[in-house]
Design a protein that fits this description.
The chain has about 500 residues and is α/β, with parallel strands linked by helices. The chain has a domain of about 325 residues: TIM Barrel, CATH 3.20.20. Helix content is about 45%, strand content about 15%. The protein contains 17 helices and 18 strands. The strands form 6 sheets. A 5-stranded parallel sheet has the order 8-9-10-13-14. A hairpin with a 3-residue loop joins strand 11 and strand 12. The radius of gyration is 25 Å and the shape is globular.
Amino acid sequence: MGRRGRSRSKPENLIKRESPEFPKEYYGGNLVSLSESQKENIHLGAIRILTEIGVSGASDFLVTLMMKNGAKISDDRILLSEGLIEKCLNNCKKNIILHGQKQAATLTLQKDRVYMGSGGAAPLIFDIKENNYRPASLKDLQKAARLVEKLDNYSFFSRSLVPTEILNPRILDLYTALVSLSATEKHIMTSVSNHRTVKEIAEICYLIAGGETNFKNKPFLSLNINYVIPPLRLDPEACKIMAESIKYGIPVMANVFGQRGASSPVNIIGSVCQTLAETLLGVIICTLLDQDSLFVCGPRAMITDLRTGGMAGGSGEQAQTTSLLSQMMRYYNLPNSSIAGATDSNIPDFQAGYEKALSISVSAQSGANIITQAGGMLSGLMGVSLESYVLDNDMCGSVLRSMSKINFSEELDDFLSIQKVVKEDMHFLGEPETLARMSTDFQYPLAAKRLSPENWMQNKEVNILNEAKQKMDDLVSEDFSSHLDTSLLSHFTKKYGLELTNI
């Protein structure tokens, strides 16, 4: 008898049991291409850069702080001592928790835990109907945050769009934070362009949290800060933003962006060593400012297309470089993030899919804690597609599921089940265990199709892009009502002069 003609277990034969919970924790770190001695050599290379080449561009307050802790000045460059570096690495916080506005939405950043979310600062958004790009708007930012809120495989919302209609930098930063905070309860990552704005962002968070102490105990917003201008030059204003963030209890995403062959050496090991040296600078600054400060290291050695000078974020070389940096972050046991969804494709196509899947899989398997830009980004981070958030959610789910822990407990011994089936139905489709685990052990895509050739030929108009567009419309087309109290929104509107009700 053919498979479709086989009998099924009768309903009365089904066992009543609690279905196993769908896994919420995922662990990477299984991909190891560096030996312990190679990691040690890379570490020594980074230390040599900091102690013999040093860094320039530090503000007076940082120069004073570092010199009090053993640094020296030579030809206007700060040379750090090995003792200072080791002290900061030993004393900094290694395991931190980033919260959402709901208690359940937390990111526990400890060794090998992996989370995925959005990210970027794209000025353009892809219009799938027109097959063209247009300037991004505040409404687009809100839709992106709402999508991340509703798509299960994203654990945080990192600002991915720059609303181009807002020209005042301070107002832009306030709008970005408030729109993000009002559209999702997941952890928010955003940025500011001036250190004076940090206090205002903190005051907003304190009000939402119900007090300063509440926010500091469970911070639900952090700031992306690119504090280094490679090679080895501190950005004074960004360092002030870092200091203000730590002062007000806002976690710091301490990011370093170099480009191999442009602002870091073209040789992969040299680029990794420089990027690590610049990353350790962030560890040192944050730890000297406050030993209990919350920070996440963000080493990014981006790849340059040497033919054009542009970025090649979707390349195999990018995946390899990102993997080495993630392995080194595990070597230091530092909370870390990586940028792994920077496809070079201009549209949500086959190129975008394979480039993102490659880099995100490698990053996750190498042990990155936080993977930003995992959803929505196109055109080397210059563009965003709302439909791509849906597509990439499916992709991220597949990557995460590939890393789920396998339970080898005795209760899962299927010997008796196999013995029973070979004597009866000759298939497991109707077995109680199969039915119990149907919706818990398997993830079903929102947009990706699993049709037989016959069904596909009858429904050729049904494709992954159309499905993503429909799902995106379903998730964000209805009237939006923020979870924030209306009195709070009115207060923010009045105090900062922002219009939040008609976005």
